[in-house]
Amino acid sequence: MRARLIALPAAIAAALMLAAPAAYADASEPKRTITVQGEGSVSAKPDTASVNAGVVAEAETARAALSANTEKMTKVFDAIKSAGIAEEDIRTSGFSINPVYSHSPRQPDGSREDPKIIGYRASNNVSVIIRDLDNVGGVLDELVTAGANNVNGVSFYIEDTQSLMDDARRKAVEDALRRATILAGTAGANLGKVMTISEQGGFQPQPAMMRSMAMDAVAESVPVAAGTQKIRTTVNLVIELE
User: Dihedral (C-alpha) 21, 24, 25, 26: value to the nearest 10 degrees?
Assistant: First the structure.
């Protein structure tokens, strides 16, 4: 009886030793996978515009330059509000008063007189958000008519891109699965479960922007074109092969 009790643990140990290599081999065998990248994009028209405009005034003294600038800039602000722009969409984007220097001609010996202050330049700029794109040309016209002589351009953008970005993500995943199906099928394999998904991309706008304009003569609403913007993203999928 004692011999039988001793033999039983020995038999179990031997069985475990024989099974261990096979289990270890199964656990260490790497899974076959395929890694693919997918791209998705959505085009949409902008729904919002941003305008940066202001007044530049020069005078012999800083005080006179500031007064002249303030007088014109007050009219510009009044024109912005008259155009129906909400106060929260109006923001001062830059203010400065700088001296204006003379530039004397260079002498035959290469020397030049030291620059002298001959006046002062006051600049005040405001950024305006226009939520009705049909009003962009009219607002530009009102700004110039009120005295704005420095317009740095108009940019168009999409204010809320979340739903568009989600559509781009869906398309990116569909594109990745399509590519994986083609590659696996050509290689004689079948797709299994998706193991990992990672996103490598984001919103990449292509804004339409008007160049800076000389605002000395504008008789009617400025023609503008918002164009379209493209939102795109890229995803990486790791898929198990059966």
Answer: 130
- C-beta atoms surrounding 104 within 10 Å: 12
DSSP string, 80-128: HHHTT--GGGEEEEEEEEEEEE--PPPPTTS--PPP-EEEEEEEEEEEE
Structure token digits, residue 61:
């003294």
Domain check: are 200 and 186 in the same one?
Answer: yes
The domain that contains 173 carries what CATH number? Answer: 3.30.110.170
Of 39, 72, 9, the residue nearest 231 (C-alpha): 39
pLDDT in tens, 17-26: 555 555 454 5
pLDDT of residue 17: 53
Give strand pairing partners of 133.
Answer: none
The mean of the pLDDT values for the chain is 83
Query: What CATH number is attached to the domain comprising 81?
Result: 3.30.70.2970
Place of tokens 């739903």: 163
- How far is it, in rounded angstroms, from Cα 199 to Cα 39? 10
Q: Tell me how far apart the alpha carbons of residues 128 and 130 are, in angstroms, rounded to a whole number.
A: 6
The boundaries of the domain holding residue 134 are 48-104+115-157
Q: Is the predicted pLDDT of residue 5 greater than 50, yes or no?
A: no
For residues 56-74, one letter each, b for 16 or more C-beta atoms within 10 angstroms of the residue's C-beta and e for the rest, the string is bbebeebeebbebbeebbe
Do 52 and 152 share a domain, yes or no?
yes
- Tally of structural domains, the chain: 2
pLDDT tens column, 80-89: 999 999 999 9
Q: What pLDDT was estimated at residue 205?
A: 60
Same domain assignment for residues 120 and 208: no
Query: Rounded to two decimals, what is the model's pTM?
Result: 0.66
